[in-house]
């Protein structure tokens, strides 16, 4: 090798040419960090952004300067001012308050949906890996075929069928991302299920559920968590897109995507009412990406995706 | 070409056809499992039971599901996906002109973004680790991880509001010249290009870097070949398969982008038709559009697979 560069902390696309996962295994100081994954500056920043939005999802209403639905000003699409930090929307409502209130919708719906998808995918994937045979083959083929429907298209079909109430949206998002979770969990669990200690557990006469949860699951927690974070980003993006199309969260509730949609008329004036909710989405997704990248690294993700 | 490889390709084709059939069944089952009754919904609450029953019969809703699925599938194959529930117009007529609009948008975007993305991807792979590479890498990861409508909003803000180069909406072309046509469709194309280029450049860069890490490239470097020569004559010919794979896969992101872009710019394409269909619960329109999209997606993924197979010498000469 003629040159040896250090990969940029979080945004490195591929493992360095020397081989996979050099950053966590071959560094001489890695022993100290074995129990506690090292988070760089970028990772800390990502963690802070994610924490900030989680707190806002829980307590955002307390910080909102105005009431969400209150029409405060006759002027619409006002620019940023001391009175209205993010300007006003198409009816003259305070955008900061509305973005804060929308956090609960976006983060809440996405978190529940991702958890459902991860839970279902993990159960199915573990069961398939431990059971094998026709059960595994049938489940894998069916879910593989579902993966071949583009996610936005899938979303439109499900919303056309089941409408866009909040429970329907959560189920829609969970169904769309369940096959992906299943594939990842099955792929990593199959390797673990072939190891000797699982064979020993089977010989001991342990039940299937015990093997799934006690023997295999603890050994695949890392990839599953990393996948959870990435999946959460996809769910946020899809939910926002559906809301942006007017098919997601319905008025009077508004998530970040709906806020962009209802204020899109302010775009020609460069109103912050359009840009701010969109930036909120971007900061959340980029923040999660930064955190996941520095926690688990690319090598793990590549291994999991294969 | 040999027997083993054509069998591989045939298997791939059969898999794609089988998947499409499964997707068709999934789309049909999901959209007909409706909690409500379509006939009731069209006529409203005050309709008499006789009127609802008559409409159900007229729409063929009283036939068994399997029969309805088969007749729907047969209709699709001969280009007749039924009538719109909202205005009674044949779905084929609704789709007709809009499909070519969407294909035009996709084709122009592909023609612009493929060369641009290859240039960005290959050059940043060559200059790996440089400031240029990091700027391209950060910019592309930003575009990839934000929603398409943010990219679209920022593009409108910059090109239409601040610079005033382009009109903010995609109207029907004012004049007849090529320039007018380009100008009126420019914003949707610019937005889609940003999204696609970001995906494609990242994947191309990864593919070229993989190739550059191969031992024979190291050998060429040791023999004193310059960086341009290494990339053009040694690495690129061997990276064509992975790059073609990356290009086809990135183009499948067009399908998602098109849905947002046609809606935000009011572009008269098939994705806008489908979104409107979902809003009015016009199921025949939604079903037909969904299948067209899935077929396009499967086609691109299949092309990506075939590119990977064709470029693998171990599969070619077995």
Automatic annotation (TrEMBL), chain A:
InterPro entries in the cross-refs? BP-dependent_transpt_permease (IPR050366), MetI-like (IPR000515), MetI-like_sf (IPR035906)
Compositional bias (Low complexity) spans?
11-20
Topology in the membrane?
Answer: Multi-pass membrane protein
Region annotation (Disordered) maps to: 1-29
Q: Where are the transmembrane segments?
A: 39-59, 107-135, 156-178, 224-249, 269-292
- Which Gene Ontology biological process is one annotated for this entry? transmembrane transport
One Gene Ontology term, aspect cellular component: plasma membrane
Q: Which residues form the ABC transmembrane type-1 domain?
A: 103-292
| Main location class | membrane
Q: Where in the cell is it found?
A: Cell membrane
User: Which Pfam families does the record cross-reference, listed alphabetically?
Assistant: BPD_transp_1
Sorted keywords for this record are: Cell membrane, Membrane, Transmembrane, Transmembrane helix, Transport
What does the sequence similarity comment in the record state about its family? Belongs to the binding-protein-dependent transport system permease family.
Q: What is this protein called?
A: ABC transporter permease
TrEMBL record, chain B:
Superkingdom of source: Bacteria
Q: Does the keyword Transmembrane apply?
A: yes
Q: Give the membrane topology.
A: Multi-pass membrane protein
Principal subcellular localization: membrane
Q: Which InterPro entries match?
A: BPD_transp_1_N (IPR045621), MetI-like (IPR000515), MetI-like_sf (IPR035906)
Q: Does the keyword Transmembrane helix apply?
A: yes
Family assignment?
Belongs to the binding-protein-dependent transport system permease family.
Q: Which PANTHER family match?
A: DIPEPTIDE TRANSPORT SYSTEM PERMEASE PROTEIN DPPB-RELATED, PEPTIDE ABC TRANSPORTER PERMEASE PROTEIN
Identification of the protein by name: ABC transporter permease
Q: Which organism is it from?
A: Azospirillum cavernae
Highest lineage ranks of the organism?
Bacteria, Pseudomonadati, Pseudomonadota, Alphaproteobacteria, Rhodospirillales
